[in-house]
Amino acid sequence: AAGVIQSPRHLIKEKRETATLKCYPIPRHDTVYWYQQGPGQDPQFLISFYEKMQSDKGSIPDRFSAQQFSDYHSELNMSSLELGDSALYFCASSPTTGVRNTEAFFGQGTRLTVV
Amino acid sequence: DAKTTQPPSMDCAEGRAANLPCNHSTISGNEYVYWYRQIHSQGPQYIIHGLKNNETNEMASLIITEDRKSSTLILPHATLRDTAVYYCIVRVSNTGNQFYFGTGTSLTVIP
């Protein structure tokens, strides 16, 4: 079965550079979520989108922005990168039935290293 | 926003049932109970969810108390590959509503 695809899988950037992470949800899933997981930490919610509109917002820094496109894929844009942004970034997707969505399925993540 | 409480770690013998508890005493009537697990550095994996009835699928069973203030995830025959951090999450299933990951239970399956 098709899963959530994230690209790239690994990314190395220097401080103050920008990075763009991409997420391709499972077909027919209209909701995407972004999470950040630092070393030894639990996943922290950043932001979510439903039908191309922001749905929920967590601890996403102002230096980060995200959007969902007409084909439902999503991109997380990160600017002025800091060493502390080094983390695993997970995307998840879920389908919606009526006004509800239940389980979300996660991709394998993008490991961002800022040097 | 810690809405759940889980023991930080547990051990289980291979082949035995693993019973992972979760307290969610402040759960609201419209909040579901979800379980996810994360094997080292992989994406969290959905296991099961429920509202008030017990649920079972090919991976696990979810037992929710009648007052819904606690639940137990049961892995009927634990294998070494079940070693992971298990997260219990309560969530209103509105579109796009976040899944809040707390600290979870680190389950180690022992040969």
List the helices and strands and how they pair.
The complex is a heterodimer of chains A (115) and B (111).
Chain A: E1 5-7, E2 10-13, E3 19-24, E4 31-37, E5 44-50, E6 53-57, E7 64-68, E8 74-78, E9 87-94, E10 105-106, E11 110-114
Chain B: E1 9-13, E2 18-23, E3 31-38, E4 45-50, E5 55-56, E6 61-64, E7 70-75, E8 84-92, E9 105-110
Parallel strand pairs in B: 1-9
Antiparallel strand pairs in B: 2-7, 3-4, 3-8, 5-6, 6-7, 8-9
Describe the structure in your own words.
- The complex is a heterodimer of chains A (115) and B (111).
- Chain A has no helices and eleven strands.
- Chain A is mainly beta.
- In chain A, strands 2, 4, 5, 6, 9, 10 and 11 form a seven-stranded mixed sheet that branches. In chain A, strands 1-3-8-7 form a four-stranded antiparallel sheet, with no helix packed on it.
- Chain B is mainly beta and 111 residues long.
- Chain B has no helices and nine strands.
- Chain B has strands spanning 9-13, 18-23, 31-38, 45-50, 55-56, 61-64, 70-75, 84-92, 105-110.
- In chain B, the strands form two sheets. Chain B has a five-stranded mixed sheet with strand order 1-9-8-3-4, with no helix packed on it. Chain B has a four-stranded antiparallel sheet with strand order 2-7-6-5, with no helix packed on it.
- Chain B is globular.
- Chain B starts with 8 loop residues before the first strand and ends with a strand.
- Classes of the chains: A mainly beta (115), B mainly beta (111).
- At the A-B interface, strand 4, strand 5, strand 9 and strand 10 of A face strand 3 and strand 4 of B.
**Percentage of residues in strands of chain A:** over 45%
What's the SSE pattern of chain A? Answer: EEEEEEEEEEE
Number of contiguous helices of chain A = 0
The SS-based structural class of chain A is mainly beta
Shape call of chain B: globular
Strand order of the largest sheet of chain B: 1-9-8-3-4
What is the tally of beta strands of chain B?
Answer: 9
Mean pLDDT of chain B: 94
Low-confidence stretches of chain B: none
Gyration radius of chain B, in Å: 13 Å
Biggest protein-protein contact in the assembly: A-B, 29 and 24 residues
Share of helical residues of chain B: under 10%
Q: Give the CA-CA distance, first to last residue of chain B.
A: 36 Å
